[in-house]
From TrEMBL:
InterPro entries on file: HotDog_dom_sf, MaoC-like_dom
Protein source organism: Paraburkholderia hiiakae
Protein name per its UniProtKB record: MaoC-like domain-containing protein
Annotated ranges, domain MaoC-like: 21-113
Stretches assigned to coiled coil: none
Amino acid sequence: MTIQYDTIQVGDTLPALELPPVDRKTLALFAGASGDHNAVHIDIDYARRAGMPDVFAHGMLSMAWLGRLLTQWVDQRQLREFGVRFVGITHIGHRIVCTGHVVEKFEAEGERRVRLEIQSANQYGEPRVVGDAVFSL
């Protein structure tokens, strides 16, 4: 299905992206793929010495999940802006759901665009990452 500017309305929602529970394997694979081997994400002893109960997800992994939410909705070549704020820690066992909705339709630089508010939240409904994105339609 191709998303069209004329059929999109402010308030429309993106299909949610529901992820399996965060586990150590996911963190290890992301560390290898990203080159981010910060011990707080992969070494439980290090994480505990830092005052955490266990390792936790990389912030950029959470941003990548939101990127997947967006690019499953519209082709990545149409993405014009994408920014986030990290507002909570994604712990081992969290089941993350990424959501988004249209908050604005406008024209800029000769393009018809939409602005989205996006977020990831855990199974308790607690936001972990919030942000926005702009797509050309």
